[in-house]
User: What shape does this take?
Amino acid sequence: MRSQFTKRLGFLASLLSAGLIIGSTANADILLFDFGNDDSNRGASVPSPDGNGNYWNSIRAGLFFTDLDDIAGNTTTVDFGFTTAGGTDYFNGPSGAVEDPSATVYDALALGNLGVDEAVYDWYNSSTFQIQQLDPNQTYDLTFFGSRKYPLDDTVTRYTAYTDATFTTPIAFVDLTIGDGLADHNQDQVAVLTGLTPQGPNHVLYIGYAGASGGTGYLNALQVATTVPEPATLTLLLAGSLALLKRRRN
Assistant: This one.
């Protein structure tokens, strides 16, 4: 009689042979952040759900946001707060001088979940923040969208993950060109930090951003998602398990 372990491997093998594991991976847990909201300086909150059916967390400085919603509208244990907050506005973002989210110019398809008028519309400049109470058994991928016409002093923003709330020891960073320095703003590019592990007893991601050359940086919208294994990784795991089973049988 086959063991439960053997039966489960047989089921996985049947999925693999049918191409079901290769063709689709488990859905990640996703949270969406809109930097700037109806209560911030000339900001706008994203409607939840948005036109794509996704739920958002529109945040601002001065408040600590607890039990945030995930993309499906479920309440989570995740919290958010700024440690140091820069300035915020819509001006010279993707809507230029027009104070109206519907005037934003961007490539919604290229930005994926972040491609929503109110999300790309407003920004916070050089800041540090904490995302707390994440799952310590998961790693996380962060997708950043920053965009600015006529940036003050730096066309590239650097987004950095740190070890703790001192924001002095970096773990990883990624750069994003937010505009050409003149009237052309970033419309279709994001930057991604992958495989980040929550730090400390409160399971925190410590994130800061500024200009890559020491100037001012910008962030309009952020996606936080649990890391999903590549299909090839799942295939290798299954293949290894099947090989182990074969050795046991022999």
Remarks:
- The chain has two domains: 1-13+231-250, 28-228.
